[in-house]
Design a protein that fits this description.
341 residues; alpha/beta; 2 domains; 8-stranded parallel sheet; 10 strands; 39% helix; globular
Length: 341
């Protein structure tokens, strides 16, 4: 396992992140304690150091397990958790991005994790109600206090993230170094704005669901049933067409479909560190095999083609020949544009 720098920071994290939403059986589909421990150990033994959890995962059990598993070598691991989702139903201040919930949630996470600090705190989802100034100042205070080392944001529009980091840079506050989003061969719409924004601002991307809930493993092509309903984005005619191409390329390369799907995200032209979760030891061992090879460019082109999405306005407009001619004086092909995404 090699390492990547986490966005505009010096933090070294593994090229694959371990997602722990499956740690615990409270939600009816996760892994028990012993299985969760075996998944963690397989990841750690492979050289992984980047662990992702959240206050809501399995009603807090995931954080408790993660805290226990890393306790013997706490400083070796880069521990990430999240706040924003509720810890108590019916009380509006036990959820959201605001300072009151932020401080309360972080303090409770520290207790469950049994640690003095969080390496990376994610804003779990944009609530649409908290001013950006309140969010960034609160997060900066947490870093200054020593309870948090770095901050990231998840499931948030690109304009909010760019506004937040611009404000942080202006005020001398700590900025977001990571962006967690759904991104896979089946879900490519983040390429419209989120990925270009992250590349321009030097923010690392950590995709969740890089296997699209298992759809890219080819399991639905075999008739297997899952938690995903038919005709959803992960289990419709388009997704199955993409999965068939993934399976075909995997057979040609002598690897598994899951490894191909993972590597497609890893081989994008910016820092992308996929989050892989597992309910079994076999699943994590399969996914970790992605670090042993690269997808050839010809196969990447095939995957790009079968999964492409409409970029929409203004992207398609600006990429048209007519517009490129008038904004370059018909010299577009003569310009070596190092900023091209």
């Amino acid at each position: 396992m090699n390492f990547k720098l986490l966005g505009k920071s010096g933090l070294r994290v593994s090229e694959v992140c371990l997602g722990t939403m499956t740690f615990g059986t409270e939600w009816g589909w996760g892994a028990d304690y012993e299985t969760s421990k075996s998944v963690f150990e397989a990841y750690s033994n492979a050289g992984g150091n980047f662990i992702d959890t959240a206050n809501r995962y399995t009603e807090g059990t995931s954080e408790k397990m993660c805290g226990e598993f890393i306790a013997s070598d706490r400083d070796h691991f880069v521990l990430a958790t999240k706040y924003s989702l509720f810890d108590r139903k019916g009380d509006p201040n036990f959820s959201g991005n605001h300072r009151k919930n932020m401080i309360r949630s972080v303090n409770e996470s520290l207790k469950r994790l049994n640690t003095d600090y969080i390496d990376l705190l994610w804003v779990h989802a944009w609530d649409g109600t908290t001013p950006v100034e309140e969010l960034m100042r609160g997060l900066d205070d947490l870093v200054s206090s020593g309870k948090v080392n770095y901050i990231g944001i998840s499931d948030t529009p690109a304009w909010v993230v760019s506004q937040a980091n611009t404000l942080a840079d202006l005020r001398g506050w700590h900025r977001f170094v990571g962006l967690q989003i759904e991104y896979s061969l089946i879900q490519r719409t983040p390429e419209r704005d989120l990925l270009p924004m992250a590349k321009a601002l030097d923010i690392a991307i950590t995709p969740w669901a890089p296997l699209a809930g298992g759809a890219l493993s080819g399991k639905y092509l075999k008739g297997e049933k899952g938690r995903v309903p038919e005709n959803s984005i992960r289990n419709n005619e388009r997704s199955q067409k993409i999965a068939r191409e993934v399976v075909a390329i995997a057979e040609e390369l002598g690897v598994t479909p899951s490894q191909v799907a993972m590597n497609w995200t890893r081989q994008q032209n910016q820092v992308v560190i996929p989050i892989v979760g597992a309910r079994t030891l076999a699943q994590i061992e399969d996914s970790l095999g992605c670090v042993n090879f690269k997808i050839p460019q010809e196969a990447m082109d095939r995957l790009d083609e079968v999964s492409k999405v409409e970029m929409g306005f203004p992207h398609d407009f600006l990429a048209s020949d007519g517009v490129r001619k008038v904004i370059s004086g018909e010299t577009w092909e003569m310009i070596d544009n190092h900023r091209k995404l």
